[in-house]
Amino acid sequence: MDKLTISQTKVGNPAVLKLTGEIDAKTAPDLKLQMELIIGNGSTNIVLDMANLSYISSAGIGVLNATLKFLKEKSGEIVLSGLSKEVKDTMDLMYFTKKIKIFPTVEAALSSF
Amino acid sequence: MKVVKENIIFLDPTLGSLVLLRSEIRKFVSELVSKQLQNRIIFSLDEIVTNVIEHGGILSLDQKIEIRILEYTDYLCFTVIDFGKPFDPTKYTGADSKQKLASGADGGFGLNAIKKVASLHYTRLVAENKNKLDLHFRKDNHG
User: Fold this and answer.
1) Out of 3.10.180.10, 3.40.50.300, 1.10.510.10, 3.30.750.24, which CATH number does the structure's domain A1-21+45-94 have?
2) Is the full-model pTM beyond 0.90?
């Protein structure tokens, strides 16, 4: 799996985006655009289902961090679910796991709102 | 020090090359080190090459980025050679990642993260007008 596929599996607020593949400097703008679209449609709480995400670069974490800050200013939030050990380790290296909420499943993430 | 295995990869200086980079590194290291270290190596090289592509100012697709991979008994060495403008990552002293995260920054976290998992050595190849960066990873580095 080398590209990033983004599908919205729940509309409304909270919304759920399922990410499949890899987020790097080329695909991170696709994630940014998709989150901007659902925020534009009124969602301020977003669950990112990362169970099928195999890689994330700092560009991806940058998109998440900037969007998280934007949503928190609107009393919203991004939370993550289903991270692989490797994706979580990458986030740990950049201290991002100290800043964002992580849940084992989408259901657990949704119940946090 | 005896070289156990080696490979060389040449990449176009485009973000579309990152998939090939990760694939080739994954193939090389898959049987050699833990999954965690595999991911850290892939992450580090992906970040370094991304930085060259985005900030190196390379103007021609002919100016390939060269990645040399050497396996030694105790460690792996990755050498990135590029035609980008001079940049020594070992001297990079930007704000730390915690400060950047707190400010809502959307970038600038990668290099600090690499320094936590790899030792870096930079050389400017003046005659060839290239940068050369070595990244060393101990095979027993499990974080």
Assistant:
1) 3.30.750.24
2) yes
